[in-house]
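Need the bound structure for magnesium ion, inputs here:
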Amino acid sequence: MSSLQPVRGTHDLLPETARRHRAVIDIARRVAECYGYQEIATPIFEFSEVFKRTLGDTSDIVTKEMYSFTDRGGEQLTLRPEATAGVARALISGGLSQQLPLKFFCHGPMFRYERPQKGRLRQFHQIDVELLGVAQPLGDIEVIALGAQILRELGVYDRVVLELNTLGDTESRQAYRAVLVDYFKAHRDRLSEDSLGRLERNPLRILDSKDEGDRRLVAEAPLFTDFLNDASRDFFAAVTAGLESLGIPYKLNPRLVRGLDYYCHTAFEFTTEALGAQGTVMAGGRYDGLVAMMGGPATPGIGWAAGIERLAMLLAAETPAIRPIAVIPVGAAEEAAALRLTESLRRAGITVDLGYGGNLGKRMKRANRMNASAAVILGEDEQARGVAAVRDLDSGEQEEVPLNALRDHLARYR
Ligand code: ATP
Ligand code: MG
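Answer from helper R.:
Posting the output first, comments after.
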């Protein structure tokens, strides 16, 4: 019954995976807060125009990856494929432009109709940071440093490489674009069909093509670096100098471009060899044209997004569940007292497991299956004396603890 399968390219976050995802989000949020980035959340769907206009008519996302639908009111809507456009829309519609610069952190599901494979899903999740209203290279340096620090705190920094490039300012891009069009036109017989279409509308995108033939051609294409004007060169030099002063190593990759239309100057990716073909874990760049392109006031911006699934796969350690305290009534007569005790401990913030039935043996088994750190055993005799037997389930040692001292006693198991 296909309707009982998850939709192709989607997956359930069962507890073990959900814990890994949460660990990534919690660490990222905490580090982002250290850098002054505040959490926001935008809707999971937007008017399709928000993405069409900003990502560009020729981008992979707009041409073949968007989940778009008409709602019951006739509106054309799209499940967000990425976060930046929604954040920029929120800046404009929320009238936040007066408060620039603004620093945002967000996370959540994204949707792209892609061919599912390891590390590539149709519903996936991202953490994302955006810095709006900062035109200086200091902004680029800060968001990259923030990304690096999150990767460090996640314990994956030693397995990633920061690849860096510049796309220059508008003038440089126009100069390069002209050279690039000439080059590809001279070799148009070797271009893929997709890239032939890109040739007139967005030749830079050919640099990002995944087609093998295109890639061979791209390998010999003129380099962007040779067509940067002085201003773009200076900007990039300031970014690299800043990274060096912070001890953040990088590898220049003159072939690195971002898939979307609105990028300029700094483009970067943290990549790993540990995940096979889907090796980019965090990707970002400067998007000074985006907010104006949407109809808002000209606002420089820079940010990145990282795939949580890919980061979670890189995490070395398991993310263990909290070990509960098991409360175990010896007989039916103690069940009511066990329920009250359980509730009072839970209200005190202690994670407590209380089985729903069964004899002492069954309940002890359950405590072990739940990986409980201790069992609080309530028997008739103990109850009469106002105590409980507390058994340390790792050492097997057992002692009597007065009920009114139980909460303090259990603190050692946190
Ligand atoms: P790719 O070249 O792999 O298609 P992209 O340029 O489309 O990547 P971005 O839009 O930059 O990717 O997204 C940022 C990050 O989000 C990626 O580096 C990756 O970690 C993650 N990501 C993107 N698409 C997917 C997907 N379909 N499934 C899982 N993670 C994804
Ligand atoms: Mg993609």
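Comments: Residues 2-169+229-314 form a domain with the BirA Bifunctional Protein; domain 2 fold (CATH 3.30.930.10). The chain has a mean pLDDT of 93.
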